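hey so u asked for the seq, here:
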Amino acid sequence: MSAKKSIAKNYIYNMVYQVLILILPLITTPYLSRVLGAEGIGIYGYTYSIVTYFILFGSLGVALYGQREIAYAQENIEIRKKVFIEVNIFRFITIAIASLFYYFFFICGAEYQIYYQILLLELIAAAFDISWFFQGMEEFKRTVTRNVLVRICSVTLVFILVKNSEDLAKFTLIYSLADLIGNLSLWLYLPKYLRGVKVKNINVLKHLPQIVLLFIPQIANQIYKILDTTMIGSLVSNKAETGYYEQGQKVIRLLLTIVTSLGVVMIPRMASTFASGDKKKINEYMRISFKFVFFLAFPIMFGIISISEAFVPLFFGKGYDKVIVLINIISPIIILMGVANVVGTQFLLPTKRQKEYTISVTIGVIVNFFLNYILITNFESIGASIATVLSQLVVDIIQFWYIRKDFDVKQLFKLSWKYLVSGLVMFALCMGAKVILDINWISEIINNISMNFDTHKEQFINIVTISIQVIVGIITYFVMLIILKDDYVFKFLDKIKNQILKRKS
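ran it, structure tokens below
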């Protein structure tokens, strides 16, 4: 199998896995938004953000370090098994310590105690998470298949058991158990990769320095992701604000997953390429990654902004109008984090430049904290959204400064112009389509058709609006790329042409 084919397949597997984790809960979102309400969603988001801190501190930099070390030892089963055992023992110990602190600080008499008690399962689940091993082996198919049945079962249970706002505890338990069972199920695949070799001289502590070095950027990066939710929950008495922010972030995170899933796939590939000293190949991979991010990020960002007004009430129901504003403000993150994923995750970390990566994300966290404190106090969830975008911009600027001698940054940005232009034209026509649909006589036709749907009239109108905008957007974007002679599109068209010719022959 060629390297490119392997990367393409692993990207698809990883994207499916990451999207699965987000999309199955997202399927329940319209239902839960109505059943649990913004306050219930806000309480869950706040308590989950707290337990996430303990998971992060308990996990240290184990996942990232373990993935990289397994990638270095893909062909050596003895070293591979030794690394797995040592790293896993290390993680069990640190998660156990984190669990003790979590128990004493948040389970004993804290507000929302019942939810904190249930969320202890998330810490246990984290101890048994070995997805890093399979990612290091570039066996992404394993991490996809493990959760399909578990996640589908959890979604089914949510619809069966969660009926009103009093069932928030049931909802929390269902999702926590799903994470635990999903992680445990992955252990069934291990014998194939580790059997037949005896390991001696186990030394857990030798990994500590490197794990800590990777822990700092990882913890900074993860705190950066959940800091907004925690600070809204702490600074704003109305927990509905946390709920609005959580719902807006949920949509953006799902879309962002499509753009950044290549990053996890490229870490072991870049690590092995770096180990071989092939700088030319590294430059080629970086160019491919940047083009890929630009190709997806611009239409996704412009697309969600153009349909947000119809999408939010259709998806979340009534009472979530503020989410429209939040999605529009946060959407540039899709491009900013997509680019940072290429520079930081795909280049700086695999090439052992943790220091530069650590500095960039740490400064991002500090900027995010101060901007949050100022803006959330005055503008609540809108302030948090603005702070998120600005702090991520700071991270991007710092990371590009660090790679300025390794790559021609101007040339990297020049790769984006076709996708930016095509995205802008797409956005203009999508918004134009909405304006046309709002013209009196067309609006009357849609209203008359929707009369057959009685109470679902508004939903029908929103579905029609979104469908037309999406169709117009997709056609416009690809036509523009054909006009601009983008090589991605022409390669895709060539593949279709070759498939047709093969069938005819």
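The chain has two domains: 3-414, 417-504. The longest helix spans residues 354-402.
lmk if thats what u needed
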